[in-house]
Write a sequence for this structure.
């Protein structure tokens, strides 16, 4: 049976060693670079004409802008637009990486937890830095909900702190697990087709897993978009806490 | 118009009506299936989200407790305490996520089901 995990292997493309650090350029790095280059090229070309009545490409660019801007304004109001460059880059990067992973034989950057954890840590640190810079020690009110009796306040505060610290974990695990599970399922069903075809008269059953693989591919495209959306939406939610702590 | 012509005309009208009805019902079924698939995808996404919220908080609590034990040498008591606190935090996360989900659904225009078609 074809190995369903093989697609996640990191391969060294050309080795780079700087001062004892292994900074080897891998296929993961290649796909990240590809995602950034594709995105940049797309937006540069799409916004080239700057027409009042947008063409097809410009429409796509404008819809993407409106989509992310809408998410920001929904969760934080006008104030949230300060975070627009950060959130927009995050959304487009994850979306393009997920979509590149859907190309047969491609590599899914977001199926590695180290990548999603780095993105989640970036969001988490942004929340901390912006939260303390804007609110000072008032930011800590996030952990002290109002209207709780003094007797159980320490306990509740402790639980709130753990809840806050669990955010980067769930934020990164969700994206990683979805992409990993989806791609493995797809590969396993693909493997069934090959195995059945090679099993004599059982080959007649081969179309069944094949149909399933087709259906899962469609679902995977939906998941690829949905997970980029969910990641961005939660980022907006967490950034809102940095601006308005205690506004549960 | 002669009576024959009128009859032919009416037959054609009714045939056209039948054909149109068939096309319309096919299109509606297709749209319905699309909406269904999207609801399934969304449901799976929300399900995964809830699971991640709960598990992440338990892990966070466990790691904090374990680290404190390691520093203070009080194994295994703080680990057990923070593991339970982590579970409480996980439930809190899930309740908050659910509340938010409800609000989003309400904002998107009504319940979890399909939207009501406008009568045109």
């Amino acid at each position: 049976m074809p190995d369903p995990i093989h697609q996640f292997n990191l391969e060294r493309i050309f080795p780079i060693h700087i001062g004892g650090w292994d900074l080897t350029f891998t296929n993961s790095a290649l796909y990240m670079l590809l995602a950034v280059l594709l995105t940049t090229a797309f937006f540069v070309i799409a916004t080239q004409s700057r027409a009042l009545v947008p063409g097809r490409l410009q429409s796509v660019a404008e819809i993407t802008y409106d989509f992310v801007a809408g998410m920001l304004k929904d969760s934080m109001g006008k104030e949230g637009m300060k975070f627009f460059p950060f959130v927009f880059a995050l959304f487009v990067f994850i979306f393009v990486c997920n979509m590149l992973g859907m190309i047969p034989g491609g590599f899914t950057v977001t199926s590695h937890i180290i990548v999603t954890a780095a993105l989640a840590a970036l969001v988490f640190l942004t929340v901390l830095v912006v939260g303390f810079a804007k609110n000072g020690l008032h930011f800590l009110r996030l952990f002290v909900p109002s209207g709780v009796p003094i007797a159980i306040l320490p306990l509740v505060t402790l639980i709130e702190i753990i809840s806050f610290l669990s955010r980067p974990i769930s934020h990164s695990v969700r994206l990683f697990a979805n992409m990993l599970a989806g791609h493995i399922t797809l590969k396993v069903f693909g493997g069934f087709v090959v195995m059945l075809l090679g099993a004599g008269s059982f080959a007649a059953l081969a179309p069944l897993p094949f149909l399933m693989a087709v259906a899962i591919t469609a679902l995977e495209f939906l998941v690829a978009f949905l997970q980029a959306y969910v990641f961005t939406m939660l980022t907006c939610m967490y950034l809102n806490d940095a601006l308005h702590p205690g506004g549960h | 118009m002669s009576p024959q012509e009128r009859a032919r005309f009416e037959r054609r009208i009714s045939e056209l009506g039948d054909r149109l009805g068939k096309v319309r019902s096919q299109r509606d079924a297709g749209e319905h299936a699309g909406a269904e698939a999207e609801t399934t995808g969304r449901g799976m996404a929300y399900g995964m989200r809830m699971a991640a919220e709960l598990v992440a908080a338990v892990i966070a609590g466990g790691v904090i407790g374990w680290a404190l034990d390691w520093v203070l040498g009080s194994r295994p008591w703080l680990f057990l305490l923070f593991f339970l606190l982590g579970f409480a935090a996980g439930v809190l996360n899930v309740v908050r996520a659910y509340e938010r989900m409800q609000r989003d659904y309400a904002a998107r225009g009504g319940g979890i089901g399909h939207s009501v078609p406008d009568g045109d």
Notes: Residues 111-115 of chain B have pLDDT under 50 and may be disordered. The CA atoms of residues 55 and 90 of chain B lie 7 Å apart.
